[in-house]
Amino acid sequence: MGILLFSSFGVLLSSLVCPFNMVWGFIIFSSCFVLFFSLLLFGNDLNVICSLFYSLGLDSVSIPLVILSCWLLPLTLLASQGHMFYYSLVTQRLYCVLLIFVLFSLIFTFSSLELSLFYISFETTLIPILVIISRWGSQYERYQASIYFMFYTLVGSLPFLVSLLSINVFLGSLFFPFFNYCFIFELLYNSFSSLWWFFTFLIFIVKMPVYGFHLWLPKAHVEATVAGSMLLAAVLLKLGGYGLIRMLGLFSFINFFNSNFYIISFCIWGSLITGIICFCQSDLKSLIAYSSVGHMSLVAGGIFLGLNSSINGSMVLMISHGLVSSCLFCLANILYERSGTRTLSLVRGYKCLMGLVAFWWLISCAANLGLPPLPNSIGELIIISSFGCLDFSFIFISGGAVVVSAVYSLLVYQLTQSNKLINSFSNIINVSVREHILIFSHLFPLLLLILNPWIYL
Q: Is the peptide bond before 19 cis (omega within 30 degrees of 0)?
């Protein structure tokens, strides 16, 4: 753990002093070393791995998310080289520094054992993503997207801060391992407890986001750069799921009073409605963003259910969705850089020009729709089967959401690859080796999850 923190901090410092003509190559090479050190976390059987400080550590919940964050850093740098080539060298260095700072904040967030440190590092990730969206976004609406992103996050975080102060008063500590002994809250159940629960979990519901709290996400995805979209979809949305898993034990008494029935039904219906909304989207990135909302609503329902099986299924779905959605945004960016548009009625017929990219699209869309034995199907099946323990009708509703997801995933592949090619797009730049490596690096971990679905649990 200490090596991982020092190496990521070392990459952050070295990116500030390396020569201008070596910025991209040096930072990508250094980030691969950080990835190598994170892979050493595999195989640990300890519940908590002690770190440099008593308030930092890792367990079976945080290790896969830390590895996912380290895996995405070199990929975001590779994906950004195309559109950042036209900016000045100082701007390119600043862009790389912000991406590394996001990784450093994520490692602190996922390894925090104290709620105060978790809150600070959780909110720290907001600043660099806000700068990336507002400074390097593709269209003028990026400023409106930045305001949405900031407004929704702050509205959810301020009540959480008040809740932290209340928890500290009751328990005298904000240390995560102490939350298993919070039986005192079960004796204090009243209407105020439900309001307290809502204040505590609002920040995570907004961050995931669950349907109804999702309006910031499509705008942020559409206006962000490819690296911003990759980080938002692959890692930052998982902060909400991680926080729900961590805080669920503190308010476990809510489950005893059937409040979770209404919460889970809201998440499942949100997943179904979001899938239907995807059919109305004309922008490719917006469709992928709404797809993420549907999957994250299903993840939230599995976590709120509170069973070991549903939480394990949510973890599998979070990791696999992070890789698949990031891959889809990279593929959408490849088409956007060559056609100059993301409109589905115009981006079509590329199977005739880029055969290997069509193969990447096929695998990514199949993974997004949950085709067995790909990991998305494993996570979805575990979550849906767990819903039957609460209400059998939930199986049909969540199953309908999965079917709708399959339909629009196949529709995306058909529209982008199989329709007749527009003549003005026939003379395009060939796909580089860098872009093929980028897509392959997203899909290769899915093969590992197919061989051993519990490798991240």
A: no
